[in-house]
C-alpha cells in the first residue's frame, strides 16, 4: 500500500471516528479499573469487619417463650418450636443502655409510640358517683284522720296535686264525733255544777283537732254535726293518696302524704374506696340526664356511716334548693367532686395509659435521653391514689423523665422477644444451654406476676362497670379488673396462689351482677338502681 493510499484512508471520516472511539474506550478502562480495584479493597475490608463481628456468639431464643436463650440452634425445651436467632439493635450507639429496647424512628412511628415529660403537681382527685333526687324527709308530712268514720268527700283526688296549708283535704262522717259534740252540749248545761266534766269534753275535742273557736261555736249554737274536715298541715305536693271516697278509716289512718319540694335531697352511692376523699361540707357539682346543659351545686350534709353489704356503697346526701321546681324526685343525677390530696402535694403525676400492671408490680417505659435512635428502659414504680385518668407516683420516677404514654405494650413485646426485663420477666433472661438443662430466670404468667382470665358479667351502664370492677378488685389477689360494657367481658389479672376465678365470680354476684358461674339473689338485684336493672 503506497503513501497516497494511506493518506486517502486517513482522511476518510469513518477512519477518524474509529480512532476517537478507540481512544474513548482506552480512557474509560484506565479510569474504571482503578475504581474497581478500590471497591474490591473496600469489600475485602467490609468482609473482614463482618468476619470480626461474626466471632460474637449468636443467642437463640423462642418466639413464644422469650425467656429461653441458648447458645446453639435447636428446639425450644418448652414448646418444641424451632429457635430463632436473637435480634440485636445493631445501632452501634455506645450511649444506649444494654437493657434498653431500641426502635427505629420508622418502627416507633408505626407503633404510634407517644411520650410525655412528667412533672410534679398538686393532685386533685375527681370522684364520680351516681344517684337520684329524693324528697327532703324533714319537709314531708303525713295527713292522718283524727277520728274514725267514713270518707264523705275528697277535695284532693290525685297524686301530684298542689295543696296549701289549712286547705281542706277530705270530709269525714264520724258517729263518735257526733256523740262527743252532744256530750259537750250536755256538759255546757252543767258547767256551773260540774265544770271539770265540761273541760274534759273540750280536751277530747281538742285532741280531735277541733279549734277553740269551733268548740266555742258549738257551745253557743248548740248545733251538732257528724261531719269534720281534715285540713292540710303543710303546703306542698301530694306524693301519696291512700283513700277513696266512701272508705272507712280509723283514728290515725294516713290519708295523704304531702312533701314540700322547695328543698330536695340528691342521694348518691359512694363506694367505700372513695369515702376517704369525701367529707361533710364539700361542694358537689351534679348534672341531670333530663336537664342536659345545666349544672347544679350543693354541699354534702350527711354521709351514712353504715355501708350497704350488697353494693359496698354508702349513701351521700347533698341538699339543694329547688325554687323553680326543676328538680323532681327520682330524677337520675351524675355528680363529680374534686378533692385536693394535700398529703400528696408536689408529687409526680403520670397518665394512666403509661402504666402496665402485672399483679404486684406497676411498670412504665422511660425514654433514654441523648441517643441517636429511640431507646426505652423499663422502670418499676410505686403508685399512690388514682386521680381518674392519671396516678400519683410515690417512687420510681423523677421530674423531667419522659415516659411512654402510648405504645407501651408494643415496646414490652419487643423486650420479651429480646429476652430483656419486661412485664412478664421481672429479671433479664440468661442463656439456657444444653449443659444447664431447662433452667431460666424470670417468671411465667402465674402466681408471682398474675395470670389472665375472663368472666362474662351482666350489666348495663357505667355505674355497673364501676360496681363490677370494684367488687373484683376487692378480692385479695386481684391485680387488674376491667369490664367491657359492649362485650360484657371482665378481664382479670389474678394471683392463683391467693384467689381464683370462682371466688371473684362470687364477689361480683354478691355485688348484684349475674355471671358465668353465679347468679345474684333477687333481693340484691332489686336493690340496684333502676339504670342497672339488666334482667329482661
Task: Describe this structure as you would to a colleague.
Helices cover 25% and strands 31% of the residues. By secondary structure, the chain is α+β, with helices and mostly antiparallel strands. It folds into five domains: 3-53; 101-123 and 344-417, conserved putative lor/sdh protein from methanococcus maripaludis s2 fold (Beta Barrel); 126-136 and 261-340, Elongation Factor Tu (Ef-tu), domain 3 (Beta Barrel); 137-259, RNA polymerase II/Efflux pump adaptor protein, barrel-sandwich hybrid domain (OB fold (Dihydrolipoamide Acetyltransferase, E2P)), CATH 2.40.50.100; 451-532, 2-Layer Sandwich (Alpha-Beta Plaits), CATH 3.30.70. Strands 4, 6, 21, 22, 23, 24 and 25 form a seven-stranded antiparallel β-sheet that branches. The chain has a six-stranded antiparallel β-barrel with strand order 7-16-19-18-17-20. Helix 4 (175-189) runs antiparallel to helix 5 (195-207) and helix 8 crosses helix 9 (501-510). Residues 34-54 and 429-449 have low confidence and may be disordered.
Give the tags.
seven-stranded antiparallel beta sheet; conserved putative lor/sdh protein from methanococcus maripaludis s2 fold; elongated; 536 residues; alpha+beta
